[in-house]
Amino acid sequence: MSPALQPSGFTYNAEGRRDPFVALFGNTGKEAAGTTAPVRAEGVAGIGTDELSVKGIMLSQGKYVAMVSGPAGKVYTVHPGDRLADGTIRGITPQFVVILQQVNTETVRLPIVFTAQNYAIAALIVTVAATVSALFVLRRLNQLDLIGALRAPE
Q: How many domains does the chain have?
């Protein structure tokens, strides 16, 4: 085996940072209670980018291919252009596999909770802001010389 194809023993140390291979939005891998997981395609087309694990890269017929596995542990051979559940294999080099992940931001839902406490806090903030604004206006009116303003020529 040539030295370029031998593994270098690299390991990723997160040191408190988020996992760069987990999607920022959308599917977190946890389904809500009472819902069923969507039906996925068979093989590599049913594996998400956050579930993919590269096991190795090899040269086959003059082109690089990658050996990858999914959550079930089954190993597949992928080529540039192969589709995943949420992405595409864009390229393979001796050092890495380039994957273009498709993110559907329209499925991201932010929970908004309306409670009596939220309304009370909002009403308090609006009342305080209106009172402070009224005090500033009254202060400026008290400092205004109305007689001088009326006598001034136009």
A: 2
Expressed as residue numbers, the domain containing 141 is 116-151
> How far from 72 is each of 23, 42, 47, 98, 127, CA to CA, in Å?
19, 12, 10, 22, 57
pLDDT in tens, 131-145: 999 999 999 988 888
Beta-ladder partners of 57? 66
3-state secondary structure of 148: helix
Same structural domain for residues 49 and 77?
A: yes
Cα–Cα distance measured from residue 94 to residue 108, given in angstroms and rounded to the nearest whole number: 36
Q: Which of 125, 144, 121 is nearest to 133 (CA)?
A: 125
User: What amino acid occupies position 71?
Assistant: P
pLDDT grade for 16, boundaries at 50, 70 and 90:
confident
129 and 86 in one domain? no
In three-state secondary structure terms, 107 is: helix
Residues 28 and 69 in one domain: yes
Q: Is the pTM of this model over 0.85?
A: no
Residues 91 and 145 in one domain: no
For the beta carbon of residue 128, count every other beta carbon within 10 angstroms. 10
The lowest-confidence range among 26-40, 71-85, 116-130, 134-148 is: 26-40
